[in-house]
Amino acid sequence: MKITKRILINLGEGDFDQGFSKATIKVQEVTRNRPNNLRELECQIPKSLDIPDIYQNWQKNYDARIKFSRTRAGFKNNQLTNVSIPTISDCNQKTEALQDKLNHWLNPVKIQLEQSLELSPEDEFDVVLHTPNIGSEIGSESTPNLLQKLPWHCWDFFAQDNFSDVALSFSNSEQVNLMSSGAEPIFPRPKRVKILCILGEPGDDQHENKIDVEADRRLLRKIPGAYCVFLRQPTRSEFFHFMEKERWDFLFFSGHSKTDKDTGLLKINPEETLDIQEIKQTIQTAINQYQGMKLAIFNSCDGLGLARQLADLDIAQIIIWREPVPDKVAQEFLKSFLGFFTGKNLQEKEDYTSTEGLSLYRSVQKARLEVQNYIEDLQRQKTLPQVSWLPVIHHNLAKESITWKQLRQLPDIDIASNKASPRETLLKRVEKFWIKGVLDKSLHIEETLELGLIEDPSAVINPSSQQGENSSRQTQHLPEGTRAIDVFGELENTRTMLILGRSGSGKTTALLEIADELISDARKNTTLPIPVVLNLSSWAGEKEPKPLAQWLVTELNRIYQFSEKQCKDWVKNQQLLLLLDGLDEVRESKRGDCIRAINQFLGSYTETEMVVCSRIRDYHKISEKLQFKTAVFYRQLTDQQIQRYFDDAGDALSGVKELKEEDEAIQELVKSPLTLNFIAVAYKGQTKDDLNNDLTNDLLDISLFEKRRKHLLDAYIQKKLEEKPVKFSKKISQKWLIWIADQITQRERKELLIERMQPDWLPVGIQQWLYSVGFRVILGLIAGLTTALHFGTQVTDDIGVQISLVIPSVIAAIVSCLSFPVLSHLRTITIPGFRVEFIPQKIQKLSQKLSKFIPGILSGLLYIIITALMVYPMVEEGIKDDK
């Protein structure tokens, strides 16, 4: 097992003119109590008059080049005249010259370290450069400022694989004062990491430095176990309000920033700039109150001033960019870093090797390498300079380095040995059927828009509160970015939640997102319940609906193919987390009974957690209410969200955007996330005239809204059929898709299981009869042939006699098989109505069960009689011939 150690480099007093004569290098092993100095070495670092000049030369060259790119440094004036633009090759040459000079300057130290330090290749080393905010001026750069900007990770002493990354530390103390384990609140289940995401002012279309902060938002919302709240171009008061009212583990800023002397400035909206000094006390107060804020990321330019001001706060690590950076590079770094740090593949490529995530140091290092590969791509070599060394970590030495596993409070459990257990098998089947089979293939408008969510506790009756107490609570509009999984994750004790919304509002998607994250958590902690997705539509499918516990066993057995005993054990031992979709799909007359069944179940199984989905209109028609902790409601899209969606789509949906301004039917359709998704697929690339002409050709006598909706669905189906061509025509494909949908609906099912298709699915009665007869004839042929061959070999060795037995045996078997359904029908007519008063009811029920075997016994006797009458004379004659 690798042990992570820290190499702490403190250059002490000095400058580039005189050198650093009292530098110290310490090798430490940091424990929960204090750092243990394993080795300490004093060394002299020589002077270097060239490094300040080389760096300033690189910086001047880089700034001149980068000013003509979209960067995250929106404060700077890009109106340059009479300035030659350096080539990418010039920039890269100056970068290499700086790295070469750094290695040459530090080479004497490298030789001394290699001779004096015994660094085990089995250990992993994080490196911290301790540069307190003091020093003399060198030209326009102070010594510490310049030291903080150098690419220290390029020092070839750190070239070995067991060195992760080089961080900076600006504090004036090396004393480590780690938080005691009791100071952090303990959660009974994996904690959701709360991230306050500030999306600053991106610039307008005419602004040369307009950046895509939406790209960062889309990446953040993919993080598993993260509760992201997005503030779009907030005012000062909005920022302070959110910072003070809740616990935040993670602060993220995307936008324009710059360093101004010793401080940092954030462009939070077009009118306001936030000086980081103004929020220091607010952040520290929030940290003290909630024991939060372990990490801050400023995905913006020139962030050293931001880190310097926050260095003395109780934030473990801060990630910043040391210079202006191209917008696309900042996005690529964030995507790679988050993927490595959380262990979740955000790049839609192969999964990373670690499912738990890497350390923060190692994640930054690997993300830097990914950015380097991104820049070196043949298509980008001529447009982007080598800037992968610009992101850097600031490490507060008073705090230990964090991991995503620690932030989520995940236990150290080895799950590799349980791959074949029923629990893991069920997790795989739920994941395969619902996550990979449904969620991953569905349309995700949530990646473009954050759907509005309202918490409405009055929609349910909280069983733990006093009668009627929760009905007086007002609805609460939740912050942008809040999802159903976030609300569910914040509930205490046994969690129960109702998800409401209009048709196509994203309820089922929200339910499956909950399943996706809970499956991942259940794999990492075997004490957590197993999330299973079921559809309530089948609950009332029988004449007498079953109690919910019995229905659960039946559905688990039917859909997930486990034995009834195993399913009963899971339900009885309350080892399942139930995700029940389609309350509104239960027959209207039975919905109240279904809610009562759910409430009764939760009254008996008090530790079982549950989420239920329903259309809001159908739920409010029911007098019964679910006895749940809370309810959330997905509201319709706002005009602002719809406009942002079309703006992001650009030319691809310009025709629909133009048509929307004058067409009321389109205006109504785009309010639903589902139909807006359909529009994005069906009408991509079409002009306004194309859409109007198609509608003009539709001669159906229906309203404009119905025409638009019909045209949209037809166009969407056509697009999807074109994506994966099949050998059938569009007409035939649509015909059978409609037939399958009707069959599922008639049987009050949500999912299509091929193995559960029965003969009564055949559309015409004669087809069902032909199937029944054909099946029994084939069964009779097989049974007759098998019996004849077996019986013939037992009574005679004459092949001719054996073959002659086949025909009568087959005839008897076919007659027997065909008689079985007739006898079964006669049983259903006669036996159920037969009652004898003096016979106990238990015996009568037993006789009803045993009567199911009567048709089989009679058809078997019929086979024996026919076979005996036809075969015996033939066998007897064959035996006589043998004699």
List the helices and strands and how they pair.
Blueprint: E1 4-10, E2 20-30, E3 35-45, H1 50-66, H2 88-116, E4 124-130, E5 137-138, E6 141-142, H3 143-149, E7 163-169, E8 193-199, H4 213-220, E9 226-232, H5 236-245, E10 250-254, E11 256-260, E12 263-267, E13 273-275, H6 276-290, E14 295-299, H7 304-310, E15 317-321, H8 327-342, H9 360-376, E16 391-395, H10 404-408, H11 422-439, E17 453-455, E18 476-477, H12 484-490, E19 496-501, H13 507-524, E20 530-535, H14 548-560, H15 564-572, E21 576-581, H16 591-604, E22 609-615, H17 616-620, E23 630-634, H18 639-649, H19 654-660, H20 664-669, H21 673-682, H22 688-696, H23 704-723, H24 730-746, H25 765-795, H26 799-804, H27 806-830, H28 841-850, H29 854-882
Parallel strand pairs: 1-4, 4-7, 8-9, 8-10, 10-14, 14-15, 19-22, 19-23, 20-21, 21-22
Antiparallel strand pairs: 1-2, 2-3, 5-6, 11-12, 12-13, 15-16, 17-18, 17-23
Helix pairs in contact: 1-2, 4-8, 5-6, 8-9, 11-13, 14-15, 19-22, 21-23, 25-27, 27-29
CATH topology of one domain: Rossmann fold
Question: In CATH, what is the class of one domain?
Answer: Alpha Beta
Assign the CATH superfamily of one domain.
P-loop containing nucleotide triphosphate hydrolases
Biggest sheet character = 7 strands, mixed
Given as residue ranges, the uncertain stretches (5+ residues, pLDDT < 50) are 76-80, 134-140, 176-183, 349-354, 466-473
What is the CATH architecture descriptor of one domain?
A: 3-Layer(aba) Sandwich
Cα-atom radius of gyration: 36 Å
Percent of residues in beta strands: 5-15%
